[in-house]
Amino acid sequence: MRKLHQVAAACAISAIMLSGSVLAQATATPAGAAAPKKEETGKDIAFNRSKGNCLACHAMPTLPDAESAGMYGPPLIAMSARYPSKAKLRAQIWDATAANPSSSMIPYGKHGVLTEAEIDKVTDFVYGL
Q1: What angle do CA 117, 73, 93 make, to 5 degrees?
Q2: Per-residue pLDDT in tens (0 to 9) along the chain, 129 residues
Q3: Residues 120, 90 contacting (CB under 8 angstroms)
């Protein structure tokens, strides 16, 4: 009988500990609430097929994770040398047709594809390539 009491006590303690950890998790993250979302970087936006999608047209030879690089646009390499003014690079991303009316690059800002903040992040990312 004493052994039965020990087993019952051990089970009760385990149940209390388990319910305590479940309760701690429930109070830390309310039901249905998502974990805090990581802030999107310029690289995330540039690689995102539903946003920047830079890899659809441009290669990024200095980045090993830049897979499925496009061959249509010029490779994004030595960008700070090609665009000494970061403002000119941003203007190119905002609306490439302003400098070259025949450009096939999407006017990301003019057409509202990316927000101002997203364009700034992509500009910073591309400028560093």
Answers
A1: 20
A2: 444 444 444 444 444 444 454 444 545 555 556 667 788 999 999 999 888 899 999 999 999 888 877 888 999 999 999 999 999 999 999 999 999 999 999 999 999 999 999 999 999 999 999
A3: yes
How far is residue 106's CA from residue 72's CA, in Å, rounded to a whole number? 13
Chain-centroid distance, C-alpha 115? 14
Closest CA to 53 of 97, 113, 95: 113
- Token pair 């540039």 in the structure block, residue: 46
Phi and psi angles of residue 43, each rounded to the nearest 5 degrees, phi first: -65, -40
Q: What is the pTM of this model?
A: 0.69
Phi-psi region of 128 (alpha: psi -120 to 50; beta: other; left: phi over 0): alpha
